[in-house]
Amino acid sequence: MAFPKSDSAAILARIREALRLSAPAPSVEAPPDVQSRRRWLPKAGPDYSEQIALFSSQTEVLKAGFLRFPSLDAARQQLAAWAREEKWDRIATHSHPLTDGLLDGSEVPRFQVAPGYDKQELEKCPVGLTACEALVAQTGSVLVSAASSGGRTLSILPPHHIVIATRDQLVPDLTAAFARVRAAYGAQLPGFLSFITGPSRTGDIERILVLGAHGPKRLSIFLIE
Amino acid sequence: MSASSLFQHDAKNATANLPRRSFIRTALAGYMGKRKAAQDYFQDWQGARQAASEIKYEGVNHLDRYLEEFTRNAEARGTKIFWASNSEQARAYILELCRQKGVQSIVKSKTMTSEEIHLNEALEKEGYHVVESDLGEFIMQLRHETPYHFVLPCMHLRRDEISATFEKTLKSAPTRDPEELTAIARRFMRQEFCRADLGISGANFLVAETGMISITENEGNARLTTALPKIHVALVGIEKVLPKLEDLALFLPMLSATGTAQTLTGYNSLYGGPRQPVEIDGPEEFHVILLDNHRTRLLADPEQRDALHCIRCGACLNVCPIFKNVGGHTYGTTYQGPIGSVITPHLRGLQDWKHLSGASSLCGACTETCPVKIDLHHHLLQNRRNAVAARPVWWEKLLFQGFSFVMRRPALYRLAGKLAPLGFALRKPIGNTPLDPLRPWTATREFPAPPPRTFQEIWKDRGQNKPIV
Questions:
Q1: Helix (H) or strand (E) holding A174
Q2: Averages of pLDDT over each 10 residues, chain B, 469 residues
Q3: C-alpha R_g of chain B
Q4: What are phi and psi of A95, to 5 degrees?
């Protein structure tokens, strides 16, 4: 046996035949451009202080931890305290100036994801530490990518995901987050991008919210100011 | 039994189950409150709906161009695109892929298109181990049931029923705690994720400009399904295309607001190919199957083409008085509720599924709530019209000819008005017996008694029988 033949020609022919009759348009105007659409979408505030306040309140609703630190050193102390209290045997992470900086001097052994890593081992790690592309005030989301956040698995497999970000990574809304990624990568966007909005959750059982369905039960966002 | 008789039969049973109906109503009432808050968070929800319908119109009405653009951009990054005209082709492609790659274990994240093509049955028949990873879908798989609602698959189940299912199939201890029930599924699924060599997902959007698919979820199961196995297959309807990446800035929060009443769902992920050379991990192969399966038939109907704008948020089900009373399984379709009633006759045959057009009170709640402004309740009327035009029913035709004959003759109309009380009296002894011609209608309804005097008589007596200017 072999793969069936892709039916692109037949499907495209049917589409073109179907579209010979035009459907009534919902409006006489062309669809609104990206910038003007923002006037309908949830508002994010014009400056950093308003945006950070919104991000903070959104993460609270989402039951995500949002911790602001004046310096990387203060964040290191928080991480060390948690590692002691919760007896972390390992921290899974990836190579990035922010994650390396945060773990500098840490006594907890690291599990570094690199091509060919053992996913069963990653599954056993209590914590996954990643950097990110952006924080989105409008929705309280963290935008991760394969390029900035250690691939596709590190931010989803361990039960506690810690994200480290800097002040300049806060963007007002989803539109700005896309612009940020385009500016950083141009036409070569990462193969994976994900807006993480709170810890993994489900409401499948009687619509009752439960955190930690299949992904992290806990999401902690460290902002270094 | 025909689909129509089965619907009648199941609807009767479902509406008689009062505790279940009240359970569904309570669940949906909670959703309504939260959805309002999510919509109010928008600066202008109605403006956003209009914009969304315009963007979808652009995509669907230039579908050929955008699908080619999507394909070009996706292939440039190593994605393999397969165009399937029907279920058989899509299933054959996946089965052949499994065979060639020596796949044994398959993990799936929620995809209604796979329900549409009955993929699980086909895979299991060939001996593959297939597990649904979305909690609701997993529960339904264990119970051998189809999803009750295409966004909330097990919304009709109480926690004790779920616990009993787990007890029976996973040998877990009984519990009433939703957190513990979720944990049971999580523990089971973790090993499935790690051992699976194929992950199958759907997609909520195809982004033409970047050749990416977008997946919306809350649990993280889709992320694991697409990250861990060495092959990822996404099964997507051809209508899911959006022209630009930034369109998602509108559609992601809209889908979240109407689908699950959230500002944004837990994970909104974009996949633009298998693992890229510079990347740490991800599947070695990424396949996207673009499924027609009669969507082009709906596309060819300009009057109802906007039904292809649907983003499958399920909002029209949640507000539908019929869905609330007959429940999801009664529809007997992959897509339930108003949108299912509109599109199923196009996807699976008008005459077999025309009865769904009658499963509506025409209240218009679905049209009013639809985030992309699909004219749902009018499409139900159009399906009724089309079904009758294609295959007239002789007795209906006769009935309406008689009706129209009487209505156009005032003397006959007056006579009919006078005879009505007589007819009513004559019916009394046989009312609701097999002899009663009105029985199908009156079995669940009261037939109103004709008033002793007609409107015309009352009007005349009041001496106001003058034309109104």
A1: helix A174-185
A2: 94 94 93 94 95 96 98 98 98 98 97 97 97 98 97 96 97 96 96 96 98 98 98 98 97 97 98 96 98 98 98 97 96 97 96 95 96 97 95 92 95 89 87 83 84 83 64
A3: 26
A4: -80, 120
Among A33, A34, A42, A25, CA closest to B54: A25
- Three-state DSSP class for B145? coil
DSSP A31: P
For residue B373, the model assigns a pLDDT of 97
pLDDT score for B135: 97
Q: A27 and B267: CB-CB below 8 Å?
A: no
Question: For B247, which DSSP code?
Answer: G
Q: What is the pLDDT of residue B437?
A: 82
Count of A–B CB contacts within 8 Å?
305
What single letter denotes the amino acid at residue B98?
C
Q: Do the bridges between strand A192-196 and strand A127-130 make them parallel or antiparallel, or are there none, so unpaired?
A: unpaired
Please name the residues in contact with B361: beta carbons below 8 A apart, sequence gap of 6 or more.
Answer: B321, B322
Domains annotated for chain B, with CATH where assigned, are 63-293 (3.40.50.10420), 394-463 (no CATH)
Q: Is the C-alpha dihedral spanning B86, B88, B89, B91 positive or negative? A: positive
DSSP state, residue B264:
S
Going along chain A from its start, the domains and CATH numbers come out as 43-224 (3.40.50.10420)
Give the H/E segment covering residue A222. Answer: strand A218-224
Instruction: List helix spans (H) across B41-177.
Output: 45-61, 63-76, 87-101, 112-116, 119-125, 135-142, 159-170
Question: What is the C-alpha to C-alpha distance for residues A38 and B384, in angstroms, rounded to an integer?
Answer: 40
| Distance in angstroms (rounded) separating the CA atoms of residues A29 and B418 | 56
Q: Which ipTM score applies to this complex? A: 0.97
Task: Please identify which residue in the block is written with the tokens 């069936």.
Answer: A4
Beta-carbon count within 10 A of B87 CB:
18
Q: Nearest by CB to A139, which of B210, B238, B253?
A: B253
Give every CB contact of residue A82 below 8 A, 6+ residues apart in sequence. Answer: A88
Mean pLDDT of A144-155: 98
Chain B partners within 8 Å of A214 (Cβ): 133, 135, 186, 189-190, 193, 219-221, 224
Point out which residues pair with B235 in neighbouring strands. Answer: B289
CA distance A87 to A89: 6
Closest-CA residue of chain B to A34: B246
Question: Which residues in chain B have Cβ-Cβ distances shorter than 8 Å to A123?
Answer: 190, 194
Q: What is the reported pTM?
A: 0.94
Q: What is the pLDDT of residue B468?
A: 56
pLDDT in tens, A51-89: 999 999 999 999 999 999 999 999 999 999 999 999 999
> What are the tens digits of pLDDT across the range B35-93?
999 999 999 999 999 999 999 999 999 999 999 999 999 999 999 999 999 999 999 99
CB contacts of A218 in chain B (<8 Å) are none
Residue B307 structure tokens? 């039904």
CA nearest to B203, candidates B231, B230, B241, B229:
B241
> What is the distance between the alpha carbons of residues B192 and A123, in angstroms, rounded to a whole number?
12
